[in-house]
Design brief:
Layout (H helix, E strand, L loop, with lengths): L4 H7 L10 E2 L2 E9 L4 E6 L5 E8 L3 H20 L8 E11 L6 E10 L6 H5 L5 H20 L12 E3 L5 E3 L11 E2 L12 H4 L4 E2 H18 L12 H8 L1 H8 L8 H10 L10 H6 L10 H14 L4
Antiparallel strand pairs: 1-2, 1-5, 2-3, 3-4, 4-6, 5-6, 7-8, 9-10
Bound molecules: adenosine-5'-triphosphate and magnesium ion.
Length: 318
């Protein structure tokens, strides 16, 4: 038979695998997030079980060297900690092959395979207006998580809402270890980008205690979770909100708090004491755990169940 243009099309057999991208033996379902160096994809094995893969491309030689070192150091952090509240790496590969759908090419890559957290991150929780009891449920997990990290000699150094995921049992999983360090003590000045999670000594480009920087960022996260906005744009006295927080604390809270929101004085106190201007003014983990707010009532099972239902609906998984 002679194949002309039309018969060629008729005989073109569709390979279902090539309709979707693949990562080694996994089918790629979609992209969850694109970061500066890595992309996170939702993938599925042949049994239909879902995982998240953090993929570092190894296209050019220069990129390969950079991405290999980033992949190695983040993997080392994940492998060396195994606390209840950190994301678990299930497997990793330095010889991954990513095949684009419809045979549009392939590239080699480094990747880590994680358990899939289907309900997003704490960032998604902000809009659900959690009350202080629900926040305490999450806060305790983060404090135990960071305590676990620091006791393993690891500091995270990039705590933010997007780096705390919600797993299938609605528990928290700390992720995003690309800035982490096997050192809890003093670091030289920070040269990276600033944001409202960075502590005053980091903002001033002074040497800083890494463990204290983690706790400051956690204080900022929990302020946002209740008030739905950051406490200031920079932890620096030239920032009017930071200045007011330091000088006229009562006025600051009255001004920041939405009218219809009750914010307990214990909550204001624990957040103020976590966001102190000087490192030695701030609460340590032990002090946080003894604080009155930390030890107030926990949510009941029914209250948690109701909140988890909201989380589930937000993620559109019914
Ligand atoms: N296991 C997972 N399950 C579901 N989503 C995930 C998972 N891991 C990562 N993600 C999503 O991908 C995003 C980016 O992941 P990650 O924080 O590891 O990378 P990054 O932000 O690029 O790097 P880093 O935070 O280390 O600077 C997360 O905020 C989350 O939305
Ligand atoms: Mg991240």
């Amino acid at each position: 038979m002679v194949l002309n243009k039309n018969t060629k099309n008729i005989y073109k057999i569709k390979n279902p695998m090539s309709e979707k991208s693949s990562l080694d033996s996994f089918v790629v379902l979609h992209t969850i997030s694109k970061g500066e160096h890595a992309v996170v994809k939702l993938i599925e094995d042949s049994y239909g079980k879902k995982f998240a893969a953090k993929i570092f491309k190894a296209k050019s030689l220069a990129l390969r060297a950079l991405h290999m070192s980033l992949w190695e150091s983040e993997l080392k952090a994940y492998r060396n900690i195994n606390t209840l509240w950190t994301l678990r790496v299930l497997a990793s590969s330095s010889t991954g092959i990513y095949k684009k759908k419809s045979q549009k090419g392939e590239y080699s890559c480094f990747y880590m395979l994680f358990e899939y957290c289907p309900y997003g991150s704490l960032w998604d929780v902000v809009k659900l207006s959690p009350d202080e009891k629900i926040l305490r449920f999450y806060f305790k997990q983060i404090i135990e998580g960071v305590e676990g990290l620091h006791s393993h000699g690891l500091t995270h150094l990039n705590f933010k809402l997007e780096n705390v995921l919600i797993d299938e049992n609605f528990g928290l999983r700390i992720c995003g270890f690309s800035h982490s360090s096997f050192d809890t003590q003093e670091a030289p000045t920070y040269n990276g980008r600033l944001d409202y999670y960075k502590s005053p000594e980091i903002v001033k480009r002074k040497p800083y205690m890494k463990n204290k920087a983690d706790l400051f960022a956690i204080g900022v996260m929990f302020f946002i979770l209740l008030l739905q906005k950051p406490p200031f744009m920079r932890a620096d006295l030239i920032d009017p909100y930071f200045k007011m927080m330091k000088a006229k604390n009562n006025e600051y809270w009255i001004r920041m708090k939405p009218k219809n929101l009750a914010v307990s004085s214990e909550y204001q106190k624990i957040i103020n004491s976590m966001l102190g201007e000087l490192e030695n003014e701030r609460l340590s983990i032990e002090e946080i755990k003894k604080h009155a707010w930390y030890n107030l009532e926990d949510p009941t099972r029914e209250e948690l169940r109701e909140f988890f239902q909201k989380v589930r609906e937000k993620a559109k998984i019914l």
